[in-house]
Design a protein that fits this description.
Elements (H helix, E strand, L loop, with lengths): L6 H8 L3 H9 L6 H14 L5 H5 L7 E6 L5 H16 L3 E6 L4 H13 L4 E5 L3 H11 L5 E4 L9 E5 L1 H14 L5 E5 L4 H16 L9 E3 L7 H16 L5 E4 L2 H13 L9 E6 L3 H4 L5 E4 L2 H16 L9 E4 L2 E3 L4
């Protein structure tokens, strides 16, 4: 089956942004004649056919919001979406939820489909780093866009994020103050969130006169799917068998922490006497494991409601009520690990 030509393809061939191509298609913003001609030539070359029904609705609200999310298996995202939906429902909006499965191309496809559906705005949760500057920043010039928990330094987009940096520092310093000198760091694939946390781990340990050992940085391929638990378990088992001196594990999310706990139990470790484990997110999972998991609370529900309120303000044209960058406080929750 031939790949469907999208507005992204037209933008790439014409050399203009998605926002500019959209303006040419919709005729809702003035553009130079030379620009219009180049875009039109790209459209003809690619035999691109825009969604006629959607274009017919131009100027009318659809009362729909697109939500792009890496996974629906990680409870961090589902709780965040719950917060978004709470506000949208109260304002008679409907959400289109699109899961990317951490696939960059699928994220692009979802974004294009949402634009074709004429959603009134897009909320993208933990967007792929490559998408922020190239795609979302461009789209946000003609469509309200809110990015949640993505890389936000240096980009002209609206962001809502938890203070992951402070949360990471709180967790690591708690372990250090308890006297742990061999702290393993468990992370997933290449994302802004995991990279941020690892950079802080690399900085904090030497600042507290603790040797930074590469062998204590545990990497897995997953991060947001249920496969994260088993991958984390296997990786932690391997590490703990080699390094019996490890007394604490900082996990970049709760799925990883569950995997670390599973491995520790298999090895007969006494928790927390012999091994401390701290997760990140504070999902409901933390309260139902045995023992219950310590974690950094990202306050997902509030992240969601804040993102939803901000995008509704943008749609209403009230930029004053939608701050460009909102950073929400995190909290370290100590339980039985």
């Amino acid at each position: 089956m031939d790949k469907k030509t999208t507005i992204i393809d037209v933008a790439q061939l014409s050399g203009f942004s998605i926002a500019t191509v959209s303006r040419v298609l919709n005729g809702n913003y003035p553009v130079k004649d030379s620009t219009r001609e180049k875009v039109q030539k790209a459209i003809e070359t690619l035999s691109f056919s825009p969604n006629v029904l959607a274009r017919g609705l131009l100027g009318a609200k659809t009362y729909t919001i697109g939500i792009i999310v890496p996974s629906l298996e990680n409870l961090f995202f589902t709780e965040l979406i719950r917060g978004i939906d709470e506000i949208l429902l109260a304002n008679e909006y409907t959400a289109f939820i699109c899961s990317t499965n951490d696939d960059l191309e699928l994220e692009k496809k979802h974004m294009t489909n949402l634009i074709d559906r004429r959603v009134d705005g897009i909320i993208s949760i933990s967007p792929e780093m490559k998408m922020i500057g190239k795609e979302y920043e461009s789209i946000s010039k003609s469509l309200p866009v809110i990015l949640v928990n993505g890389e936000h330094d240096g980009y002209d987009c609206h962001f809502v994020s938890s203070d992951q940096a402070t949360g990471t520092i709180k967790a690591l310093e708690y372990l250090i103050e308890e006297g742990h000198g061999k702290i393993a760091f468990l992370r997933g694939h290449n994302t802004y969130s995991y990279n941020l946390k690892e950079n802080l781990y690399r900085r904090l340990l030497p600042e507290h006169a603790i040797e930074l050992e590469e062998s204590l940085i545990i990497r897995i391929n997953a991060g947001n799917s249920l496969a994260t638990i088993d991958e984390s378990c296997e990786a932690v088992l391997t590490c703990l068998k080699k390094r019996k001196d490890i007394t604490a594990i900082f996990s970049c999310n709760d799925l990883m922490a569950v995997g670390a706990l599973k491995a520790s139990v298999q090895l007969g470790k006494r928790i927390p006497e012999e091994l401390r484990i701290i997760g990140f997110d504070n999902t409901i999972t933390c309260s139902i494991t045995q023992p219950t998991l310590s974690s950094v609370d990202q306050k997902m529900r509030i992240l969601g409601t804040t993102a939803a309120n901000n995008i509704l303000a943008l749609i209403a044209g009230n930029d004053a009520n939608s701050q460009k960058k909102v950073i929400l406080e995190t909290q370290l929750i100590i339980r039985n690990t």
